[in-house]
Amino acid sequence: MTVCTKRCKIVTLIIVTVCLLTIGISVVSLCETLYHQILRKELTITNASTGYELWKETPIPMYLKLYLFNWTNAQEVLRNWSIKPIFKECGPVTYYQKRIWHFEPDLSVGTLQDNITNLNVIAATAAYFVRKKPIYVQKIASFFIDLKEKELVQTKTVAEWTFDGYEDKLLTLLGKLNISNFDIPSDKFGWFYGRNNSETYDGNFTMYTGTDNIDLLGIFNKWNGASWTGDYSSYCGVVNGTSGELWPPVKKYDRVAIFSPDLCSTIWLSHQTNYSNETVGLVGKKYIGTDFNFDNGTKYPEQKCFTNNEPFPSGVRDVSACKFGAPAFVSYPHFYLANTKYNSSINGMHPDKDKHEFFIVLEPNTGIPLEVRATMQLNLLIEPIHSLNMFKNVKTTFIPMFWFAQTAELTEKLGSIGALLIFISIYLTLRKAWVSKEEERLLSETS
């Protein structure tokens, strides 16, 4: 009978330990490989993937909350522009989104028939269009503005301001004249008129499916067939970012980008902190909108291409080229994070980080949005134009028209999609023995 000596036992122990370590490392490596294969299979956009089903029709409830500004002392200001305009925030007017925006009266303050007084959008747009034209052109424009429009302000219902729209005599006339570079819809005007149930309103997008590179999942490559919007110079006009609904894994990203067709440009969000969603028991990375987005190039030189050579203080982005030539400028709500000059020229603005901060919380390994609050305000610029009767006495002012908060939060029931994604994927992987290696494909989506 052979007896294992002490030396033999030590050698045997070392051999067994090495074998166990090798097996353990192999198992961990195999699990990690399987884990990434599962993520790739279920998150990428293919006809059979979970990611495709979620992207095609998101199950996460999405709401649009609109806050319209009512110009309460409009008549006094029109008589004397030394008086500060006063604006009262009205709302929210809440809509539930599922292709069609449905009004939610129980989640709203007021009704769609409430009256709101604010700037005459069509008159302001016509004036802005001719502001740098020859005097004789401005005189002609002044004649038609005075003929078709009653005054610089108008009162319309919430429904007319938003989705229903309203008819306007000057708008109809401009449509008939077919003016070059003044391509504006001519039947009705409303901030969201024509958007409901439209699959083409936002244009056509081409995005990466993530099939060959999961880090490109959901990122737009083109908008309306082009990789550059044409509305801004340099990088400001590059089509970049996601829609805000579909994301790649963001574990290694300190910044993420959302491309907005309403802005014809990209909004950048910076990682602030990790955020625990107690409802679904998942931890995500919280990305917020900072002063970078609406800087005029003073603090962030690369942002100067958004200004279109207009020397306005930081806090707004000129989107006039994106909005049919209207004097449209976007900001955070109530000019949050903007230069104090904007709020000092009017009354009624109360910027609040807790209410007005733009943020999104993403699960880092899957990119699944856990919570979203996208906030933005639309403002119209009016300036004195001495050849236009209606505008010759006005004071240069950014008039706040409305702000919105588009919100979404993963519910406890839907949280299981993220929490159980890996386990579902294991089942599908073992069942179908998925194998795929192909070049990155682009998928065209019609919004």
Report on the structure:
It is a single chain. This protein has 447 residues and is α+β, with helices and mostly antiparallel strands. 26% of the residues lie in helices and 26% in strands. It contains eleven helices and 16 strands. The strands form three sheets. Strands 1, 2, 3, 8, 9, 10, 11, 12, 13, 14 and 15 form an eleven-stranded antiparallel sheet that branches. Strands 7-6-16 form a three-stranded antiparallel sheet, with no helix packed on it. Strand 2 and strand 3 form a beta hairpin. Helix 1 crosses helix 11 and helix 4 runs antiparallel to helix 5. The chain is elongated, with a radius of gyration of 27 Å.
How would the blueprint of this fold be written?
Elements: H1 6-43, H2 50-56, E1 62-71, H3 74-79, E2 87-98, E3 100-103, E4 115-119, H4 121-130, H5 135-148, E5 153-157, H6 158-161, H7 169-177, E6 204-208, E7 220-223, E8 255-260, E9 265-277, E10 282-289, E11 317-318, E12 328-331, H8 340-344, H9 353-356, E13 359-362, E14 369-382, E15 397-409, H10 412-419, H11 421-432, E16 442-446
Antiparallel strand pairs: 1-2, 1-15, 2-3, 4-5, 6-7, 6-16, 8-9, 9-10, 10-13, 11-12, 12-14, 13-14, 14-15
